[in-house]
Amino acid sequence: MKRLNDLEYLKLNRLQAFLYKLKLFFCAIPGFFKGIGLAILNFFKNCGLAIKNEFKDIFTTFTKGNWAVKLSFFIFGFGNLYYGQIMRGLLFLLFEVVFIGYMLLPSGGIYWLSKGNWFQTGATVGTVQGGFQYDPIFDVDYWVGGDDSVKVLLYGLLTIIFIIAFIYTWRLQVKQCRICMDITAKGKRVRSGKDDLKSLLDDQFHKTLLALPITGILVFTVLPIIYMVLIAFTSYDAAHDGYANLFSWVGLENFNEMFNFGKGGLGLAFGEILSWTLMWAFFATFTNYFLGMFVAIMINKKGIKIKKFWRTVLVMTIAVPQFVSLLYVSKLFDSSGIIGKLLINWNLLPQSMVDANQMSLWQNPLTARILVIVINIWVGIPHIMLMATGILMNIPQDLYESSRIDGANTIQQYTKITLPYMMFVMGPYLLTSFVNNLNNFNVIYLLTNNSPLLNTQIGSAGGVSVSHTDLLITWLYKMTLNSAETKYYLASIIGILVFVVVAVLSLIVYNVIPSTKNEEDYR
Which of the two ends of the chain, N or C, has the fewest CB atoms closer than 10 A to its terminal CB? Predict the structure, then answer.
């Protein structure tokens, strides 16, 4: 398709400009997927080249290194000790000793790895099943403990991570030994332990500050995600809790169950819940954003009196704990609440989907979904209003005065000045808000309390009752903590899907918002 230059594009009317952009969009789709494919190929290509270069460098280091460097291949930190870097050498050596000791302990790394039967479909996680044995002396059955699948999987994963850290540390200390050899060959002095300490408090101070947060992210974020992914390939549920009954590896069987759209599968429930989750996140984000911005604009207009009072009234909803407000409001709209009774007297309550003789806003799918969006507006507008107020005060008033001189009306000022400026400043916040709404547990769960149920075909998905207003996150909660038949493996799959959806949408939106694309225009 031929692209128009700026002059040709400006000559188009609104309909022609819209159709031109639409054609560009559809023409760009093949190129988009082609770019994704090339990016994946380049990624694997670069990974292969990096691995090749690493092995080549290791071989060169061993063949051209002196005896101290060669010995460091087997004794961690020996080269550092040889060249006077005592502190580094001792730390590397201590790491090797701890690793070897941990792996060779009776209940150490090798023990946990051997118990895992890793990814052998049908094999249990753990090898010894606990059970009751009869004691003829006391005439009772007593429990004889076996392996704990949860513990085996966790400690096995930690062992694998420890092995990866060991390989990385081995490569690092070998590379440092060669660097020390090259520096010494040029007649220069290598860094001492004192120099390292000074560096950590000076030019490398950022690494010192980031060490603890990165460790926390790895331990409390990355490790649980990996563990969750592993659980998705097992039969971990209430019947196979890993202690009384070992769970086993099942391969892709759980994913087949999740994406099975036939009878007995969860595909229909997953599709409906995912579509509602995306719709909810969209409306919950942008209704709050535009209405909060509108309220801020109205309060900040010239001529509005007692502005502080209006802001204070709106902010009061933030001061009250959210769960208190949501539980209270949910009761107001119930059939026994004040608003519910008024609607009954006016014959405005819709028919309940669950009970034909009952009238309820919460038991009708359409009104329940509309109601949670409306109540979320009441909860979310004050936050947006406060942020928008600060941004509006920083928009140069010269822009509005110049536009008025040029004959721009209020709507044109909003679309050409206010909205672009707000979108640029609040673009990252909108992305964060959208992601938070995808996982907004409080509003949905506290307001609806598991009603209304879906139709009978998919009303009990994954062993738990599913509502029309359920999000993926509330479905996950019910499947693990609010169900007699907990299915942790399905909950893990839902967690993976939530992560994938959030990651993909975040990457796409982050690369198209004005805050990142047109940064130079606002400087």
Answer: C
- Crossing angle, helix 472-481 and helix 488-510, to 10 degrees? 160
Q: 467 has which bridge partners?
A: 453
Whole-Å CA distances, 522 to 177, 386, 404, 420, 431: 49, 22, 21, 10, 19
Residue 451 CB contacts under 8 Å (≥ 6 apart), including other chains: 354, 362, 363, 368, 467
DSSP of 246-268: --BB-TTHHHHHHT--STT-SHH
Contact between 294 and 418 (Cβ < 8 Å): no
Give the separation between CA 496 and CA 504, rounded to whole angstroms.
12
363, 449 Cβ separation under 8 angstroms: no
Q: Give the pLDDT confidence score for residue 354 in this predicted structure.
A: 44
pTM: 0.79
Tokens representing 356 are 């034909």
Run means of pLDDT, 10 residues per run, the chain, 523 residues: 76 81 78 81 91 90 88 90 88 94 91 90 88 78 83 93 94 90 87 82 84 90 91 89 89 86 76 90 91 87 78 77 79 77 73 53 80 86 85 84 85 85 84 88 79 47 73 85 77 89 82 64 52
Between the alpha carbon of residue 305 and those of residues 298, 338, 392, 397, 400, the distances in Å are: 11, 33, 18, 20, 22
Could you tell me which of 346, 394, 349, 371 has the C-alpha nearest to residue 446? 371
Distance between CA 385 and CA 323 in Å, rounded?
Answer: 21
Would you state the pLDDT for residue 457? 39
Q: Closest Cα partner for 445 from 297, 330, 315, 301?
A: 330
Q: What are the counts of helices (DSSP H) followed by strands (DSSP E) for the chain?
A: 23, 4
Query: How confident is the model at residue 234, as a pLDDT?
Result: 92
Helix, strand, coil proportions of the chain in percent (round to 5)? 65, 5, 30
What one-character DSSP code corresponds to residue 47? Answer: H
DSSP string, 338-396: HHHHHHHHTT-PPBPSS-TT-B-STTSHHHHHHHHHHHHHHHHHHHHHHHHHHHHTTS-
Non-local CB neighbours of 300 within 8 Å, separated by 6+ positions: 307, 389, 392, 393
**Measured distance CA(208)–CA(463) in Å, rounded:** 48
Q: How many residues does the chain have?
A: 523
Q: d(Cα 270, Cα 276) in Å, to the nearest integer?
A: 10
What is the C-alpha separation between 415 and 399, in angstroms, rounded? 13
Please answer whether residues 248 and 120 qualify as being in contact, where contact means their C-beta atoms are separated by less than 8 angstroms.
Answer: no
